């Protein structure tokens, strides 16, 4: 019997979610205090973060009013004007507009209802429970209805998370630029608080919507927890479906603009990054928010929803569900609830307890966020495992019940949590320009772009070793202690500090846009140096966030795979069986096929962008002198049209494969496909040369492509004698670094991140449609 009462659980979970929402609102209010209007500052005013609170413009005799006014104009151009990222009818949100995502959601919801409802011929009669023998469960038609509703809830929550994330990002970027005039500490706090708004809103909204859905569904299902939590899996499917659109569409949008702006502007014309003379610069800044804010938010929300659903499904057929122990059943939700409180305390360390006074303190401050949150969360997990779990219980393990102790489940969650920290630190080592790997890549630029690419690829392949061992150890430990439920809660452990992880991740694009605004507004080079330092740290932390994403995706996918195998009543996945081995081969091939689609899409869109930017430079007189207005809407339209058009084929590949394979070839072949895509995915998602290789290539993708990006910034900053010898901007080594960065961009921001969604989405979709595949396969089977 758990120490925490059911009533206490019913209060704790929503209360923590509400606290998270309130905290995000408070952070929003604090960011809004930075006004986009000129203010007088006294040289005698002291600042807590970043030396005296005087403005660089005052020190250098520049016009403060004109600088602020220009920042406000650029902010409006990005967030409210003709390049609106909040206007659903304009450029950014065609990714989420009615004609794309809404139509998909409605169509797929109908598909879920028809397929699952047909399992029992749309019968309204109760049926024998699959696991709880001797009991009667609700009809398949009810499962179809409630799975459809939970799918829509997951999709809507994912869309809302992406929208709110981009809204705060565009709200904060100019404010971060203005705060950089006072000091790097002020700018850091503004950017980090803005990221925290997204992190806490997503974590709290995801938890609250899931909790409310479970309680509303329980009104109908009553004691039929087996049917209730099977229907809830649609929540994870909805979240990952929208994440796929956000990642693929957003990645195509941002990288088409980024590649076009860099190749023509920096390499051919020799103008700085984010130079206002570059026609693609606005599209590039908008794209940062599409792919890196909305895409990452939706991705991690999908991982959170799927890991929660996988754990709840397994728990519902274990002693928790059979004995109707609500507090123990809600153990995954309680972990997430405590995680919000832990992340709240951790955030205060960055914004209130410590102050940043120099550029060199930025990256350590972000690393401390990971360390502090992990240590506090370890204590939180131990406390939750003590009060929310019986001392001994049973967990479903492929047809049998495995006896588990509460301390063993604590270790399962803890090993996932610490594996995430290890992945984060390894990623940071291989992508930060503070350490030798990035400096070696930068040094390789002395002999041209070819050696830069070779060094980067080698670094990426090498960087995958430790993260894969960390994931492998966490899988072994968690499965040994608590079977597939242990793996599901290990994934939740890795995601338990999702609010902090997202805050760190969103901080990067906000800082990047702040630097772009400083450049376009013609602000002092010292301000640009500060924003570049923020951005360089942001590149590293973005890679850390993507490392968390692929690590959690591996654990989540395996947990969902286990739930699918159990639901489909597959006793053994025998690789020596031809139907399973064929599935393995096809599954291992899918990440290649998917990556080929997304890479070609970025390349095609980037080609159009390059041609348009060249056309404007060649045909508009005085453009290089900054005299005429740019025709930027054309560049924005190229990215928008490409993202909408090109994201459909990869999405169709992912969404249709489980249905076709499961219906025509059977659930055993589908199990092989899932296993093949998972293994190919988790190695390749870690390496972008291998982003052409698979979802495991995702993580390496982040690392060597992040290394290419930071190698370029290392040369541009010229902070050491070695860096100065490779520079300055426009030198041959710098051009080689820009080419490497451009090659890596679509790998780390489009193909790589999308691959972890591929393996998760196929697994959760297979779980949702398992009843249909088991029922209808005998009628369509190609082999027996």
UniProtKB/TrEMBL annotation:
It is a multi-pass membrane protein. Keywords: Ion transport, Magnesium, Membrane, Translocase, Transmembrane, Transmembrane helix, Transport. The gene is AVP_6. It is found in: Endomembrane system. It comes from Vitis vinifera. It comes from the Eukaryota. This is H(+)-exporting diphosphatase. GO terms for molecular function: diphosphate hydrolysis-driven proton transmembrane transporter activity; inorganic diphosphate phosphatase activity. Its main location: membrane.
């Amino acid at each position: 019997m758990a120490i925490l009462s059911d009533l206490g659980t019913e209060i704790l979970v929503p209360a923590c979610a509400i606290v998270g929402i309130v905290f995000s609102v408070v952070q929003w209010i604090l960011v809004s205090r930075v006004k986009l209007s000129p203010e007088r500052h006294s040289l005698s005013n002291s600042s807590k973060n970043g030396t005296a609170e005087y403005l660089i413009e005052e020190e250098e005799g520049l016009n403060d009013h004109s600088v602020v006014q220009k920042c406000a104009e650029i902010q409006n151009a990005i967030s409210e004007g003709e390049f609106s990222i909040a206007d659903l009818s304009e450029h950014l949100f065609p990714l989420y507009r009615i004609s794309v995502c809404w139509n998909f959601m409605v169509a797929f919801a109908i598909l879920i209802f028809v397929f699952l409802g047909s399992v029992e011929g749309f019968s309204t009669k109760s049926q024998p429970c699959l696991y709880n023998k001797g009991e009667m469960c609700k009809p398949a038609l009810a499962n179809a209805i409630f799975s459809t509703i939970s799918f829509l809830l997951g999709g809507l929550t994912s869309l809302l998370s992406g929208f709110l994330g981009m809204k705060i990002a565009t709200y904060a970027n100019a404010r971060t630029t203005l705060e950089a005039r006072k000091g790097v500490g002020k700018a850091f706090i503004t950017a980090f608080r803005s990221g925290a708004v997204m992190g806490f809103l997503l974590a709290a909204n995801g938890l609250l919507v899931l909790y409310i859905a479970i309680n509303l569904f329980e009104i109908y299902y009553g004691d039929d927890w087996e049917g209730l939590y099977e229907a809830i899996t649609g929540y994870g499917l909805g979240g990952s479906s929208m994440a796929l659109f956000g990642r693929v569409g957003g990645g195509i949008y941002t990288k088409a603009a980024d590649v076009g702006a860099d190749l023509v502007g920096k390499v051919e014309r020799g103008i700085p990054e984010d130079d206002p003379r570059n026609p693609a610069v606005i599209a590039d800044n908008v794209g940062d928010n599409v792919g890196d804010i909305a895409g990452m938010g939706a991705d991690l929300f999908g991982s959170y929803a799927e890991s929660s659903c996988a754990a709840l499904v397994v728990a519902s057929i274990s002693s928790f569900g059979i004995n109707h122990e609500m507090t123990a059943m809600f153990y995954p939700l309680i972990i997430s609830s405590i995680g919000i409180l832990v992340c709240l305390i951790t955030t205060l360390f960055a914004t209130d307890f410590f102050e940043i006074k120099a550029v060199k303190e930025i990256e350590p401050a972000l690393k401390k966020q990971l360390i502090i949150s992990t240590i506090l969360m370890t204590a939180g997990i131990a406390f939750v495992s003590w009060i929310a779990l019986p001392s001994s219980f049973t967990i479903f393990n492929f047809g049998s019940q495995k006896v588990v102790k509460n301390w063993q489940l604590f270790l399962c969650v803890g090993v996932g949590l610490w594996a995430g920290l290890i992945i984060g630190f390894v990623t940071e080592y291989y992508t930060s320009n503070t350490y030798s790997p990035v400096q070696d890549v930068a040094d390789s630029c002395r002999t041209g772009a070819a050696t830069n690419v070779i060094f980067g690829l080698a670094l990426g392949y090498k960087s995958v070793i430790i993260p894969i061992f960390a994931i492998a150890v966490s899988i072994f430990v968690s499965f040994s202690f608590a079977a597939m439920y242990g793996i599901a809660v290990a994934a939740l452990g890795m995601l338990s500090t999702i609010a902090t992880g997202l805050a760190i991740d969103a901080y990067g694009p906000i800082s990047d846009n702040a630097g772009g605004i400083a450049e376009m507004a013609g602000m002092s080079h010292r301000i640009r140096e500060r924003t570049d330092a923020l951005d360089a740290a942001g590149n590293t932390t973005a890679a850390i966030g993507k490392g968390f994403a692929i690590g959690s995706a591996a654990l989540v996918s395996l947990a969902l795979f286990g739930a699918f195998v159990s639901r489909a009543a597959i006793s053994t996945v025998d690789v020596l069986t031809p139907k399973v081995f064929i599935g393995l081969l096809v599954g291992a091939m899918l990440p290649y096929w998917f990556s080929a689609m997304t890479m070609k899409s970025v390349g095609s869109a980037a080609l159009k962008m390059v041609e348009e930017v060249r056309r404007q430079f060649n045909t508009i007189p005085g453009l290089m002198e900054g005299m005429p207005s740019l025709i930027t809407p054309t560049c924005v339209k190229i990215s928008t049209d490409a993202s909408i058009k090109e994201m459909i084929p990869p999405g169709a590949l992912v969404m249709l494969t489980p249905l076709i394979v499961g219906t025509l070839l059977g659930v055993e072949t589908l199990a092989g496909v899932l296993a093949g895509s998972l293994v190919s995915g988790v190695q390749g998602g870690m390496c972008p040369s291998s982003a052409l290789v698979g979802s495991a290539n995702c993580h390496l993708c982040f690392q060597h492509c992040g290394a290419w990006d930071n190698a370029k910034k290392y040369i541009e900053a010229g902070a050491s004698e070695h860096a100065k010898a490779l520079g300055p901007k426009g030198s041959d080594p710098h051009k080689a670094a820009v080419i490497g960065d451009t090659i890596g961009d679509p790998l780390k921001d489009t193909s790589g991140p999308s691959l972890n969604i591929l393996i998760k989405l196929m697994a959760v979709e297979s779980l949702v449609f398992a009843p249909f595949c088991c029922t209808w396969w005998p009628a369509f089977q190609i082999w027996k």
